[in-house]
Amino acid sequence: MKKLTTKPAKRAGQKKPIIFCDFDGTITQLDVTDQILSQHAHPAWREVEQEWACGSIGSQECLERQMALVDASAEELNALIDAVPVDPGFPRFLRWLEDSGFAFYVVSDGFDYVIRRVLKRAGVNGQLHNGGALFANALSVEGRRAVASFPNRSAECEHGCATCKPVIMRRLSRAHGPVVFVGDGLSDRYAVAEADLVLAKHQLLAYCRGQGIACTPFDTFDDVVEATEQFLNSHRAASGGAKSRGPRARRGARAAAD
Questions:
Q1: Whole-number CA gyration radius for the chain
Q2: For labelling alongside 216, which of 42, 71, 77, 159 has CA 20 to 30 A away?
Q3: Please, are residues 58 and 159 in contact by the beta-carbon 8 Å criterion?
């Protein structure tokens, strides 16, 4: 059994890397929230999804309205959650984290109820308190109602996000470097500006390529481990010279020039 957080393993005076990771469609092979909605919500959830995808509403309003359309018991939700497959490379990734001692946080627009249950099945133990090593929306089941709340929204967020990933990443990465982000969807598009290395697939990969944002494609967490090790080795080799030119570095350079 692995813990989500790992012990520091860097020499004194060195900043240790920090890794942020999306959950739905990244750690899992399916978007669990979409599975809940497609199987247990009124079809109107898809219209709400389109409003969010085109930018008319933020993810907090989107999820609040969508989860209000769910009609399912806790037993039905648990059966669905327990059938969702986890990325086959994720167990090796956890072992690599433990060996490396890198800081690791899950940042998600999904729900803590789902994430804790899936990660426990994947071998992650501990309490996984929301706001600790996990930052996600909160979900409780009351009868056949799914009640959503948003402990990680931020007044600083310009996009109405349910979980404001950039604000969380900026706060937690101040004592770390470089910053790695792993994600797959449109809910991750604002997070990439805070990372030195972006590992992307699916919609996030298409978004980054369309916006000219540097990213590394991945299929499984085996690819994440390999790409991150290569990046960190290059970063260490260049630590006395040129700095990383990932999205975060370019954003800082622009700010310095203004």
A1: 18
A2: 159
A3: yes
> Backbone phi, then psi, for 216, in 5-degree steps?
-115, 120
Q: Report long-range pairs for 232-236 (Cβ below 8 Å, ≥24 apart).
A: 232/17, 232/178, 235/178, 235/196
Strand 2-3, strand 103-111: pairing: unpaired
Residue 8: the pLDDT is 40
Please answer whether residues 148 and 111 qualify as being in contact, where contact means their C-beta atoms are separated by less than 8 angstroms: yes
The count of other CB atoms within 10 Å of the CB of residue 43 is 9
| Exposure of 28 in the CB half-sphere (CA atoms within 13 A) | 27
Amino acid at 207: Y
Q: What's the token pair of residue 100?
A: 């490396």
Pair of tokens at residue 222: 């085996």
Q: Which residue, 148, 149, 161, 220, is CA-closest to 190? A: 161
What are 66-105's pLDDT values in tens digits? 999 999 999 999 999 999 999 999 999 999 998 999 999 9
For residues 10 and 101, the answer to whether their CB atoms sit within 8 Å is yes
Q: Enumerate residue ranges in the chain where pLDDT < 70.
A: 1-14, 125-128, 240-258
Per DSSP, the residues of 191-206 read GGGG-SEEEE-HHHHH
Contact present, 198 and 246 (Cβ < 8 Å): yes
Which domains can be identified in the chain, with CATH numbers? 2-257 (3.40.50.1000)
Backbone phi, then psi, for 76, in 5-degree steps?
-65, -45
Which spans in the chain are helix H? 32-40, 45-53, 59-67, 74-82, 90-100, 112-122, 165-172, 202-211, 221-237, 247-257
